[in-house]
């Protein structure tokens, strides 16, 4: 069993390592990594989502329990991260929100898709994309609202009218490639039209490039993060992200909601994914928590080669 898990996990993280080595040694310029990441985010992942949602069946499983299980884990770890950064490390309210994001925002696209595909094949992509369909909107709206409140508490800005704030967030989401892929996939499914012939072949070829390019580009991007001092908050948030959050999601999915085994596994493995790069983007946008986010991303990604294998071993038991 351990050898089988290593066979699944190691190739994923070797690809990340190759991307990191290529960028670190200068074999490929950083701009190439940015371009590859852009391709994955704008083209490849939306195409995979479109194809999966347009052609797959949920098998009679309601997504509501799945979402409830996962976002219970998000809510608890986000709250813990915020409280620990604010009260234990005595950081300002905005940094507390960034801490919560680092503890709860999983890298569902660049790591979740390859990991779930390697473990469960295309069958696992159905629940994963059901999760991704609301993951980004929920997390983005929650971050915007909480950061707005935190900025007012910190005295760095005046409160904005709630309708204006929500409208701005929704406009950004409306142009997000992943959201567009979700909407197109659902709309195509409602038409009942098949995906076949040349159209199907083109989608398949793009989708087949997603996993290696996503992992390689993630490795290249890791050069920009690294360890940036003030390590203790990053270690705490990393523990919440790859240890506490998947444990909560597993308990909710198995013992509270009673999801099918495949859906329990996908929810738990997704929760166990490293901190998403969006956490650092939020830190940049709001001007706080840069080192904390960089450390969380680096530590959780580096440790994931071990922790994801341990979660797979646990789920197989």
Word description of this protein:
The chain has 317 residues and is an all-alpha fold. It has a single domain (2-316), classed as Na+/H+ antiporter like fold, CATH 1.20.1530. 82% of the residues lie in helices and 0% in strands. The chain contains 13 helices and no strands. The chain has helices at residues 2-24, 30-55, 63-88, 93-104, 108-120, 122-154, 162-174, 177-191, 197-221, 231-256, 261-271, 278-286, 290-316. α4 (93-104) packs antiparallel against α6 (122-154) and α6 packs across α11 (261-271). The termini are close together.
What does this entry show, briefly?
This protein is mostly helical and 317 residues long.
Helix proportion? over 70%
Overall tally of structural domains: 1
The multimeric state of the shown protein is single chain
CATH topology: Na+/H+ antiporter like fold
Succession of helices and strands:
HHHHHHHHHHHHH
Report the sheet-strand fraction: under 5%
Count of separate DSSP helical elements: 13
Q: Specify the structural class.
A: mainly alpha
Mind telling me which CATH architecture this is? Up-down Bundle
Q: What do the pLDDT scores average to? A: 88
Sheet having the most strands: none
Kindly report how far apart the N and C termini lie.
Answer: 10 Å
Principal-axis shape: globular
Are there runs of 5+ residues with pLDDT below 50, and where?
Answer: none
Q: How many strand elements?
A: 0
The level-1 CATH class: Mainly Alpha
Computed CA radius of gyration, to the nearest angstrom: 19 Å
């Amino acid at each position: 069993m351990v050898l089988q898990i290593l066979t699944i996990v190691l190739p994923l993280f070797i690809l990340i390592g190759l991307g990191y080595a290529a960028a670190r040694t200068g074999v490929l310029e950083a701009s190439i990594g940015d371009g590859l990441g852009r391709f994955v985010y704008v083209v490849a992942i939306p195409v995979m989502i479109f194809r999966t949602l347009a052609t797959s069946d949920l098998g009679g499983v309601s997504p509501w329990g799945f979402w409830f299980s996962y976002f219970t884990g998000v809510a608890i770890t986000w709250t813990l991260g915020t409280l620990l950064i604010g009260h234990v490390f005595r950081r300002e309210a905005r940094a507390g929100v960034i801490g919560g994001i680092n503890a709860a925002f999983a890298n569902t696209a660049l790591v979740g898709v390859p990991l779930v595909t390697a473990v469960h094949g295309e069958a696992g992509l159905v629940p994963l994309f059901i999760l991704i369909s609301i993951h980004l909107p929920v997390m983005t709206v929650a971050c915007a609202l909480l950061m707005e409140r935190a900025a007012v508490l910190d005295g760095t800005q005046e409160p904005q009218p709630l309708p204006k704030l929500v409208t701005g967030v929704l406009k950004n989401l409306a142009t997000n490639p992943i959201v567009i892929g979700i909407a197109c996939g659902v709309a195509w499914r409602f038409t009942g039209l098949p995906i076949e012939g040349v159209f199907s072949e083109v989608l398949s070829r793009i989708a087949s490039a997603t996993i290696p390019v996503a992992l390689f580009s993630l490795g290249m991007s890791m050069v920009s993060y690294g360890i940036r001092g003030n390590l203790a908050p990053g270690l705490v948030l990393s523990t919440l992200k790859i240890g506490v959050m998947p444990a909560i999601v597993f308990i909710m999915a198995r013992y509270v909601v009673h999801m099918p085994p495949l859906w329990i596994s996908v929810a738990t493995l997704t929760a166990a994914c490293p901190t998403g790069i969006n956490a650092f983007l939020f830190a940049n946008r709001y001007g706080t928590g840069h080192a904390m986010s960089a450390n969380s991303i680096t530590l959780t990604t580096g440790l994931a080669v071990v922790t994801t294998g341990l979660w797979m071993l646990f789920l197989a038991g």
